[in-house]
Design goal:
Elements (H helix, E strand, L loop, with lengths): L3 E9 H8 L10 E8 L6 E4 H7 L2 E9 L5 E14 L2 E10 L6 E2 L1 H7 L1 E4 L4 E4 L16
Parallel strand pairs: 2-7, 3-6
Antiparallel strand pairs: 1-2, 1-5, 4-5, 5-6, 8-9
Length: 142
């Protein structure tokens, strides 16, 4: 299986909330459309410092992550980030990678948007069982 990329829109969810309360105008909502590497083996979403500078997400905390080569690094976590693909939306946080490293869409926002990687076409698609919108699984608490 090769590398899979998708066109994703990232939106500053704090800006969306401020616009809903009429503190800022709709035109002031910071957003960016980018191509992201889709990796269902990674949990988190990762953006880089360039994206962070453009969209101005709020700092949440520092968190450690294990890289593919086994090294452990500490990264800033920022958010909330509204992630859009096709007719799907998720709100999540992201780790901030140094410099201009490649942004990564991990499994947590993929699950929330109910999207998957099509193995033959090597592309991100909406779940064909739920084309009209995301359907999430909640376990009964009864």
């Amino acid at each position: 299986m090769g590398l899979v990329y998708a066109d994703i829109k990232l939106i500053n969810a704090d800006d969306v909330a401020m616009a809903k309360r009429h503190f800022i105008g709709q035109e002031e909502i910071r957003e960016l459309s980018i191509s992201m590497l889709v990796d269902s083996g990674a949990y988190e979403m990762a953006i880089n410092e360039t994206i962070q500078a453009q969209l101005g997400f709020s700092f949440i905390e520092k968190r450690k992550a294990i890289l593919a080569d086994g090294r452990i690094n500490e990264y800033d976590v920022v958010g909330p980030i509204m992630v859009k693909f096709a007719n799907r939306t998720a709100v999540c946080s992201a780790m901030v990678l140094p410099g201009n490293l490649e942004p990564l869409l991990g499994s947590i926002p993929m699950e929330e948007m109910d999207v998957m990687i099509h193995p033959r076409r090597q592309e991100l698609i909406v779940n064909p069982d739920h084309p009209e919108g995301a359907q999430l699984s909640l376990k009964s608490m009864e």
